[in-house]
């Protein structure tokens, strides 16, 4: 239950009101809201979800498991269930999900969270999260089949298109968007003298997506330049994109790739 509990769950198991009051006085439990308590070391996001009225879900539950999510994470996604009540609490900016029966406390499963993410965030947000969860080893083949079967028909192709080897959600987004333009990419290709590259298009265009949060100074920049020089020496061209370009400036990325591809194809 993520360290959160209803007082009636405790009292139904023999805990008296007096014991409960003493537990709060002694700091063994903290009061979340009327009738809901938490242990002091409970995950603050799970406590906030309980304060709102349910369990952490959707992108918030995925992020907690280390899954890459496109959603910036400024709002907590909370499942309260079909008939669940939403409770006011300080600083509430929660996104309320009402799917399923009554919500418990804690967090929904990764499978459940992915299904919610499709309807809440759309195709791209779902696809990036699904590939990330798969890469992290959080999805068995039965889980993937369950996700696919539970999605609305318009999203199912995304499960079929997904791979378990995307290094970051940015790679997932780029591959999906180019696939929609009819461009198929080879992923995680080993190029002699260069190493593994993120994508190879048309056999000659290397596309690298920098998923690092901060480009870690000169050393990595130098490494990238060495790779690009070596790739060029072998007849490849390299295009590099980062988070800001892929997420906020996609038309520029698309123009760059399409133009280079048309030039390269014209030369062959
Ligand atoms: Zn959501
Ligand atoms: Zn809230």
From TrEMBL:
Gene3D superfamilies for the chain: VSR Endonuclease (3.40.960.10)
Domain DUF559, chain residue ranges per copy: 182-261
InterPro entries in UniProt: DUF559
Protein name: DUF559 domain-containing protein
Native species: Microbacterium radiodurans
């Amino acid at each position: 239950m993520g360290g959160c509990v209803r007082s009636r769950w405790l009292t139904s198991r023999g805990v008296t009101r007096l014991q409960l009051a003493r537990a709060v006085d002694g700091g063994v439990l903290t009061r979340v809201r009327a009738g809901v308590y938490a242990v002091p070391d409970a995950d603050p996001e799970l406590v906030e979800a309980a304060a709102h009225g349910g369990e952490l879900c959707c992108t918030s539950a995925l992020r907690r498991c280390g899954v890459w999510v496109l959603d910036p994470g400024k709002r907590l996604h909370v499942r309260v269930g079909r008939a669940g009540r939403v409770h006011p609490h300080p600083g509430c900016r929660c996104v309320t999900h009402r799917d399923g029966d009554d919500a418990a406390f804690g967090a929904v499963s990764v499978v459940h969270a992915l299904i919610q993410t499709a309807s809440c965030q759309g195709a791209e947000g779902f696809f990036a999260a699904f590939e990330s969860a798969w890469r992290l080893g959080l999805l068995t083949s039965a889980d993937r089949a369950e996700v696919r079967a539970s999605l609305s028909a318009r999203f199912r192709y995304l499960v079929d298109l997904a791979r378990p080897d995307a290094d970051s959600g940015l790679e997932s987004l780029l591959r999906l968007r180019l696939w929609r333009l009819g461009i198929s990419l080879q992923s995680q290709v080993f190029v002699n003298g260069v190493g593994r590259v993120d994508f190879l298009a048309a056999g000659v265009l290397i596309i690298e997506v920098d998923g690092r949060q901060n480009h870690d100074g000169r050393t990595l920049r130098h490494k990238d330049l060495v790779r690009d020089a070596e790739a060029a020496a072998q007849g490849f061209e390299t295009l590099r994109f980062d988070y800001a370009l892929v997420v906020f400036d996609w038309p520029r990325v698309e123009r760059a790739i399409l133009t280079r591809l048309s030039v390269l194809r014209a030369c062959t």
